[in-house]
Write a structure and sequence with these properties.
alpha+beta, 5-stranded antiparallel β-sheet, 7 helices
Length: about 500
């Protein structure tokens, strides 16, 4: 085969629609003729016979072809320790294998393409300090026993774990190698020319993707050289045969079976994901996203949240109704969190059976705190947000306030940290145990602080149409009560203003 222009070694990915067992690769390697022979126009073969001259072979997927060194090494039973090596010994003994200059390493062989995997990696001073700063997280369990993995099994009604901390893919690799060492030289495992990689083939069984590195050749070829300076041209050709009609029918049956299994998985997921509520419970699903805080003075900010539930409400034991975001410093007077959490609440229908009663509604209690590099802790602000009655998507920009004291408290807050705090955070809204109709907070000295931006998505779930009608009535009733309370406040304010004007006129 004549010399062609050298092709750049670039990997390529191919989508596989057939079984990977049908894949075949043809590899041909030819020793280049010396330049002096081309100049002198010698017609005879001027290749060095002490090295590989020409070799042509077709490899199937995961086909094990032994090299001359492997054939000699595995023919000695004392060198075979593992079960796979004992199997190789039996194959070489039964078939009298001598080895081929073009050979392969399959998934069962302990071959590593990068030598760095067998040496100790370099550790920088910064890396060592980061390791000692926090306790190391060690997970020595096998992959199938870890809690953060993707498990694919054949049982459709089994719950699958979908936490994507590990990007797990079912991959298998095959290496096509060539022996470019001298024939008159004793074979040793330390000879670098004995293991020269021609092609790396990787198959991702989960996504049906075949990776070839380097890519298949057309009229061009690749060029490699050994340590003695002898150069070789080699070609990689796709040699898979077209499937027969029977194989195509089997592939279609396998595809139908795979689609059927996927539908069974989906059906199992839907059956486990959807849980019907009991007839006497209204379910509220809440997705809370704390976006950012603005206009605060100190750095190292974090937001704590707590859902305050009245007596008529309940939740599952697995749901956490409180939490705290990560710490974040101010940039342009703003700190961004993007902290998302979910919770579900249950409202018992027995609490809204009477038409004149509106149940107490949950409130989201928020507090912003700061902790700087000097470990100075400060409470930056409090806020209270009633849970929206209607389902939907909401955006809030909530102002906050904090308690204040004397000038000494302000100085302590600035220099050493520490400030007045609420002993009970429910005092942001309606404190627990409050039974009166009027709640006075006039004796509390407060000052406005920054604001909190958050998004909230609410979904309602009921088990029957009657429950939905009662819930719609509850929504209208709560809205009417709210408007009635506002009108009462305005009427009371108007009456108090008129009373003050009368007193003022009498004094005059």
């Amino acid at each position: 085969m004549p010399n062609k222009i050298r092709k750049k070694k670039i990997a390529a990915n191919y989508k596989v629609k057939e079984p990977i067992g049908n894949f075949k690769l043809r590899v041909k390697i030819v020793q280049q003729r010396p330049l002096l022979a081309d100049l002198l126009e010698n017609e005879g073969d001027t290749r060095d016979s002490n090295f590989l001259e020409e070799e042509d072979r077709i490899f199937s997927w995961q086909e094990k072809v032994f090299s001359p060194f492997e054939a000699t090494f595995y023919s000695d039973q004392n060198n075979c320790l593992t079960e796979q090596q004992k199997l190789y010994y039996q194959q070489i003994k039964d078939n009298d294998i001598q080895g081929s200059l073009l050979y392969t390493y399959t998934q069962n062989d302990s071959y590593y393409l990068e030598n760095e995997l067998l040496t100790e990696p370099c550790k920088t001073r910064l890396g060592i300090r980061n390791q000692t700063a926090l306790p190391a997280l060690q997970n020595r369990k096998p992959f199938q026993e870890r809690y953060n993995k993707i498990v694919l099994d054949d049982v459709p009604n089994k719950t699958r774990i979908r936490i994507n901390h590990y990007h797990y893919m079912e991959r298998s690799t095959m290496y096509v190698m060539v022996d470019l060492s001298q024939r008159d030289k004793t074979l040793t495992s330390s000879d670098d020319d004995m293991e020269t990689v021609l092609c790396v083939i990787t198959y991702d069984g989960l996504h049906k993707i075949l990776s070839i590195n380097p890519d298949f050749t057309d009229d061009h070829c690749y060029i490699i050289a050994n340590s003695n300076g002898v150069k070789f041209n080699y070609w990689l050709e796709h040699a898979s045969e077209k499937p027969s009609s029977l194989e195509l029918q089997q592939q279609q049956n396998e595809a139908r079976r795979e689609i059927r299994n996927r539908l069974m998985y989906k059906e199992a997921e839907i059956s486990h994901g959807i849980q019907l509520t009991s007839p006497d419970v209204y379910k509220f699903f809440i997705k809370l996203d704390i976006l950012s805080v603005h206009n605060f003075f100190f750095d190292g900010l974090s937001v704590s949240y707590q859902m305050n539930l009245p007596e008529q409400w309940s939740t599952n034991k697995e749901d956490r109704l409180f939490g705290r975001t990560q710490r974040c410093n101010l940039i342009n007077n703003s700190a961004y969190f993007s902290y998302a959490t979910e919770m579900s609440l249950d409202l018992h229908s027995a609490s809204i059976e009477t038409e004149d009663t509106v149940p107490c509604w949950p409130r989201l209690l928020l507090s912003v705190i700061s902790l700087d590099s000097w470990s100075r802790y400060r409470t930056e602000g409090y806020a209270s947000l009633p849970l929206p009655v209607l389902p939907g998507s909401y955006k809030f920009n909530i102002p906050t306030w904090r308690a204040t004291g004397s000038i000494i408290n302000s100085l302590r807050r600035f220099f050493t940290g520490g400030t007045y705090e609420l002993e009970d955070i429910t005092y942001c809204g309606i404190p627990q145990g409050h039974e009166g109709k009027m709640l006075s907070k006039s004796q509390l000295n407060v000052t406005p602080s920054g604001n909190i931006k958050l998004n909230m998505n609410i979904v309602h779930q009921t088990s029957s149409a009657k429950d939905r009608d009662q819930l719609e009535y509850l929504q209208h009733l709560s809205t009417d009560k709210f408007m009635t309370n506002i009108e009462n406040i305005f009427e009371q304010f108007k009456a108090a203003r008129e009373h003050m004007l009368k007193i003022k006129n009498l004094n005059i």
